[in-house]
Write a structure and sequence with these properties.
The protein is built from 15 helices and 7 strands. The chain is an alpha/beta fold.
C-alpha cells in the first residue's frame, strides 16, 4: 500500500508519518527508512529504489518529501505516469509515502485523481478559530489540567494555530499543576507578537506611558527591530481603519466583519476592542505618520529607536 500525507500542520504530519512507519515496519531507523526530496531527486531514482528488495530488513519505507506534483505549483518534473504504474503493482516489501505541505491537492489533474484513488490519504491541516478550543480542551484533559472558563478563554486567545507551540505551552502548564485561573495563564503563557502590538497601541492610546514603555522594553529584549514593528503597526492601523469603517456601516459581529475583510476573526475581535479610541481621521493621520517615520529612518534622518519612541508618545498625546 502507498500513502499520501499532506497539510500545513507539520507537527501532525510528522506524527502521522511516525505512527504509520511504526505500524507497518516497526521502529524507524536509517536502515529501514529512506527520505527523498522530490524537488532534488527525479522519479526514476526513487522508483528504482522502491522496486529494490531491502537487504537488512524485511520491509523498508521510502518517504518522498515536497511531492509537489500533487499540487497546483509543481516544479518537480516527475514522471507521474511511471509513479502511477508502480503504485498499481508495488513491491510488497516497500512502503511508499508521498508528502507535501499543501493544504489541498490539485484534484483538477488526472494524475492526482488517480494517485488519490490508489493511495490512502491523510490530511493534516492547521487548526482554526473553530477547532482550536476543542483541541485545547482535549489536550488539557489528557494532562489533567483544570482551567476556569475565563482562563480557558484567555489561553485560547494567546495560543497560535501551531500544534507544536500549543503542545509546548500545555506541557508548561502541566508542570505548574493544580487548577489555573486567568492570572496564572497570563503569567505562564507567552503572548503572541500580535497581542503585544495591540497592547502597545492600547497603552499608547490611553496615555499609559508606564505600561507602553514596559511593553516596548519587552519587545526590545526579544530583539524586535523598530522597522519591523513599524510595518506591523501599519498593518494593524490599516485593519483598525477598515474595522472602524465597517462598524460605521452597521456591521457589528466580528465574524461578519472578518468575512467581509478577508482576515482572521480573532484579529477583528482584538481590533474592535481598540478602534473606539480612534476616529477615521486620526487613523489616517497615524498611517501617514508611520509611512513618514519609515522613510525618515531608512534615509538616516532619525535614529530608529528614538523615532519609534517619539511615535508612541505622539499617539498618546
Amino acid at each position: 500500500m502507498s500513502y499520501i500525507i499532506h497539510g500545513e500542520e507539520q507537527y501532525q504530519v510528522r506524527k502521522a508519518m511516525d505512527a504509520l512507519i511504526r505500524q507497518l515496519i516497526g521502529q524507524r531507523d536509517d536502515l529501514n527508512t529512506i527520505i527523498y526530496d522530490a524537488t532534488q531527486t527525479d522519479s526514476d531514482t526513487v522508483l528504482a529504489d522502491a522496486q529494490t528488495i531491502p537487504f537488512f530488513t524485511d520491509k523498508k519505507c521510502i518517504i518522498v518529501q515536497n511531492a509537489d506534483f500533487l499540487t497546483a505549483s509543481d516544479t518537480t518534473k516527475w514522471d507521474t505516469e511511471a509513479l502511477i504504474q508502480y503504485i498499481k503493482t508495488p513491491l510488497p516489501s516497500t512502503v511508499l509515502i508521498l508528502s507535501t505541505t499543501a493544504a489541498k491537492l490539485d484534484m483538477r489533474k488526472k494524475s492526482v485523481k488517480q494517485l488519490v484513488s490508489l493511495c490512502k490519504v491523510t490530511v493534516c491541516n492547521r487548526l482554526d478559530q473553530g477547532s482550536l478550543p476543542a483541541y485545547v480542551k482535549e489536550q488539557l484533559a489528557k494532562r489533567g489540567i483544570k482551567l476556569s472558563y475565563e482562563a480557558l478563554t484567555c489561553l485560547c486567545e494567546r495560543l497560535p494555530f501551531d500544534i507544536a507551540v500549543i503542545q509546548n505551552e500545555l506541557d508548561k502548564l502541566a508542570l505548574y499543576g493544580g487548577t489555573l485561573d486567568e492570572s496564572a495563564i497570563q503569567a505562564l503563557v507567552s503572548r503572541s507578537l500580535e497581542e503585544d502590538v495591540f497592547a502597545l497601541v492600547n497603552a499608547a492610546a490611553q496615555s499609559d506611558h508606564k505600561r507602553m514603555f514596559a511593553i516596548w522594553e519587552d519587545l526590545q529584549l526579544q530583539n524586535k527591530d523598530p522597522i519591523y514593528l513599524i510595518a506591523l503597526l501599519s498593518s494593524q492601523f490599516h485593519l483598525f481603519y477598515q474595522v472602524k469603517n465597517a462598524l460605521r456601516q452597521g456591521m457589528h459581529a466580528h465574524d461578519e466583519i472578518a468575512q467581509e475583510l478577508g482576515v482572521h476573526p480573532y484579529r477583528v475581535k482584538l481590533a474592535i476592542r481598540s478602534v473606539e479610541r480612534f476616529s477615521l481621521d486620526s487613523l489616517m493621520e497615524i498611517l501617514a505618520n508611520l509611512a513618514q517615520l519609515d522613510q525618515s529612518i531608512k534615509s538616516g534622518a532619525i535614529d530608529k529607536k528614538l523615532g519609534f519612541e517619539l511615535f508612541l508618545l505622539r499617539i498618546g498625546a
